[in-house]
Amino acid sequence: MINYLYIFPEIIITSALCFIIVLDLFLPNKLKYISYYLIQLSLIFCAYYIYSHISYLTNNNSELYDTSIFSNIFKIFILLSLAMIFYYTSVFLKYFNIFRTEYFLITLFGLLGMMIMISSQNMLLLYLGIELLSLSLYSVIAFNKNSLFSSEAAVKYYILGAISSGFLLFGISLIYGLTGSLNFNEIFIHIASFNITNGIDNVQVIGLLFALIFILISLSFKFGAAPFHMWIPDVYHGSIITTTLLLSTIPKIAVFVILIKLLTNVFSGLFLFWADMVIILSILSILIGNIVAISQTNIKRMLAYSTIANIGFILLGLSVGSIIGYKAAMFYTLTYVVTTIAAFGLLSQLICRNKPIENISDLSGLNSTSPFTAFLLMFILLSYIGIPPFIGFHAKLFIIQSLVETNNIPLGIFAVLMTVVGSYYYLRVIKVIYFDEAKNVLASTSKLYITGIYVLGLILLGLLPDVLGQLSQYSISNFFNT
After folding, report:
1. Please, what's the largest Cα pairwise distance for the chain?
2. Which of 23, 394, 400, 482 could form a disulfide with 465 if both were Cys (CB 3.0 to 4.6 A apart)?
3. How many helices (H) and strands (E) does the chain have?
4. According to the model, what pLDDT value does residue 193 have?
């Protein structure tokens, strides 16, 4: 008898989806909140199940589906992050009377796709997970039917996403044609059988290199790395702010996990080639992200280019090709996600002229009208910059430290200089908040108690960075020991 309990977390989410879809059909509008709370309960229960059964799940791996500690830690993190995102989303949608249970249900399909991506040990399963995530994101981006910007953003993302998927599928087809397998471990063994240290001396190696390039291009698009970043500013700008919050956080975690698995395991034999590619992607991302963000006046577009720059720092850690670099990259990814949830979550609760915050100038004089909100936003922005003792400082420090320890001194100097450049556009927002005259009366969609507690947690993480540090070390160590 086949044991399917190792995919029980995915079964929980799928069962919750089926049940809530049917239940919501029979609920009157005034009771739709029941579906929302059931969705939140499903996320928390699934996270608790993974945590309480992590040893069982780890011991019941399969060749097709990975349920190691490394994968399960990321699943727990994604589930809890999505619960927080759903809180901000529900507050925002209710305030503007556009609350629809379908928004959350479609996002759950995306969550299922991310969980499949994280655990996939097979190229075809990976592709199916990515497509399930992408199809869900197309729908939530176009959620605001009254906005031409939302429709434009969805069409742009759909077209570019389809091209990206084509690149990925072509790369996978090359892999299958050259190795005769789609299994990660079998592809790794096949690549390891070639002696690539002396350069390219085999037609198959050239084919594998082309496959790697196509797959890396596709994943760079999903990750938002330059020069495949063209969709990010327009899609972030056109989407409602809570959708922007979703796009800029948990999908990045899923893609990061895939990059770790493919680059450090499946294609580790091609390190001589992909290391240089990743370095180029990281340098372009940091340069374009930080420089173009300086000229932005729309806060969502500014944070979009900030995302591109942060992706560049994550790729710098991956390019090192050592465990210390992977740990630093994971720490940076987790730090970026928790900080971005705080940033977009807080902005989603601010209202200017009964509309969501759009421009940086909308925040003028925020300190004079709401000192507590101004303090929360200042802390988040200082963490983005990397000012000690905030959590963002430790993230950037670990990346630079990993570069220095692996003798990549020029890249370390470049990272420091670009951190200084990038601080300008964050400090400009702080200047607008504290020193500009108040032009608008800002209101909030709800009390900021939850956000205040969340930001307090970020302060504690900054004072105790070893919490995320130990988590990164534990998960990466387990990944390389399995």
Report:
1. 71
2. 394
3. 21, 3
4. 81
Its pTM stands at 0.94
- The CA-atom distances, in angstroms, between 229 and each of 83, 88, 218, 422 are 27, 26, 11, 18
Q: Distance between CA atoms of 342 and 458, rounded to whole angstroms? A: 9
Length in residues, the chain: 482
Residue 478 has pLDDT above 90, yes or no: no
What is the distance of C-alpha 256 from the center of its chain? 8
Residue 198 is predicted with a pLDDT of 56
* The dihedral sign for the CA sequence 223, 226, 231, 236: positive
Torsional sign, CA 318, 281, 85, 159: negative
SS3 of residue 41 by DSSP: helix
DSSP 8-state symbol, 192: H
Rounded to a whole number of angstroms, the distance between the first and last alpha carbons of the chain is 26
Residue-wise pLDDT for 345-374, tens only, equals 999 998 887 888 888 888 888 888 888 889
3-state secondary structure of 390: coil
Helix H or strand E segment including 352: strand 350-352
In the structure encoding, which two tokens stand for residue 194, read together? 């070639």
Alpha-carbon gap, residue 129 to 234, rounded angstroms? 25
Strand partners, 420: none
Phi and psi at residue 120, to the nearest 5°: -65, 135
Q: Hey, what are 433's tokens? A: 């908040």
Provide mean pLDDT across the span 447-464: 88
Q: In this structure, how many other beta carbons lie within 10 angstroms of the beta carbon of residue 148?
A: 10
Amino acid identity at 275: A
- Residue 482 CA to residue 480 CA, distance in Å, equals 6
- Residue 309: what pLDDT? 94
pLDDT, position 443: 76
Spatial contact of 212 and 205, defined as CB atoms under 8 Å apart: no
Cis peptide preceding 227, ω within 30 of 0: yes
Q: Look at residue 199 in the predicted model and tell me its pLDDT.
A: 56
Confirm if 424 and 338 have CB atoms less than 8 A apart: no
Neighbours of 297 (CB within 10 A): 10
* Nearest CA among 332, 335, 364, 349 for reference residue 437: 364
**pLDDT tens per residue, range 61-80:** 777 888 888 889 999 999 99
